Amino acid sequence: MQQYRIKIGWVIICLLAGISCKDLYNPPITSKDYNYLVVEGFIDNGTAPTHIRLTRTRRLGLEARIVPEFKAKVAVVGEGNESYALTEGSEGDYFATLTLDNAKKYSLQIKTADGNEYRSAAVSLKKAPPIDSVYWQKNQEGVQIYLTTHDPQNNTKYYRWEYEETWEYHMYDTSFFEFKPNLLKVVPRDTPLVNVCWRTLLSNQILLGSTEKFTTDLIHAFPLVKIVEDSDDAWKLGALYSILVKQYAFNKEAFAYWLNMKKNTEQLGTIFDPQPTEIKGNITCINNPTETVIGYISAGTSSSQRIFVKVPRWNYRIPCSDSTERRLKQLEMFLPKDTIGPFIEPYVPMREVKRGGEVIGYQSADYICADCRAYKGEPRKPSYWP
After folding, report:
1. 327: three-class secondary structure by DSSP
2. Residue 93 belongs to domain spanning
3. Binning pLDDT at 50, 70 and 90, where does residue 329 land?
4. How far apart are CA 60 and CA 32, in angstroms?
5. Out of the domains of life, which is the source (predicted)?
6. Is residue 41 part of a domain?
7. Does residue 110 contact residue 297 with C-beta atoms inside 8 Å?
8. Biggest alpha carbon distance in the chain?
């Protein structure tokens, strides 16, 4: 028994020695910047605008991960060579509201500023059925938002969804004054005030659903968004929250492209996850057919639905509302009038402080406690907001 224990001890020592002698291996990473064109979007036939985004890939490690493609000429072209030009917006975005013939096929044509021409395969228009419902349920963790949809004709089979979140949020304090650097003085703040803002975020997930293996074309209780109570995202439900969901109908080839994209971008992490596959879209460079172009263009009529969410007794944190932050803020609440010019930043003047009828200074707060724009929102209520 003693010899057996000695042998086991030597085995453990050898194993530990082997582990401690392992060298760190950093695999080589290519430094080549391929500068591939990336085409994102959908040819939408109807009231929803067609939105095409053009960007360029960048090598890992470079600061600018997304490089917009500016000054391109983008058009939707029909089978009879009828052309519908898109208008350039900002950051590589191109827009148009289109009325197309459902009996025809259409392709996307792109002419970049460097003289290259790209064209997608001609695709048929596919109409998405209406969304049955977008709804939410509160559970022990927080709020889960779901979608249910179906096609009574059993023709859709392949779905993709995008969503746009907008939420209203309120600051702990209200600032009635602002400092004007060009005037070097504090003046009453223009309306709207900056104590209430609305912020909008677009979905960054690839949300797909298929009923190919089902007898009915029905997707029930598909999970869209989860917001955990008392988390960093919980403030989205602090006042009023809205989600706009868009639904697209795809053919089998387009669905396969997006499924591969999802696997390559969201489901990698261990050797047991699906490994990267080459993502081949339906867009070709006319000048150089061997050039890699990332993207798949589909066409049709999307459907959408918006809901508002107001959760009673919801636990969330208002910036600067906890006792520690408020104590720190209170210590620096007063700014004498003669220090406003050189020392105002990052403070926001809140209210006048008077002595004998004369303004001697301002109650002030750090802008993160009083200016809702610090959290990337805008103090203008959206037109659709109640």
Report:
1. helix
2. 31-120+252-297
3. low
4. 9
5. Bacteria
6. yes
7. no
8. 95
The strand pairing partners of 93, in sequence order, are 53
Work out how many domains the chain is built from and give that number.
1
Residue with tokens 């509160």: 138
Tell me which residue has tokens 């059993």. 154
pTM for the complete prediction? Answer: 0.84
CA dist., res. 52 & res. 42, Å (int): 7
Would you say residue 272 lies in a domain?
Answer: yes
φ and ψ at residue 214, rounded to 5 degrees: -105, 160
- CA 282 to centroid of chain Cα atoms: 24
Domain presence at residue 169 = no
Q: Which three-class secondary structure state does DSSP give residue 238?
A: coil
Residue 276 token pair: 């990267």
Question: What pLDDT does 219 receive?
Answer: 98
- Output helix, strand, coil percentages for the chain, rounded to the nearest 5: 15, 40, 45
* In the block, residue with structure tokens 């960054």: 204
Average pLDDT (273-295) is 83
* CA proximity to 174, closest of 325, 348, 330: 348
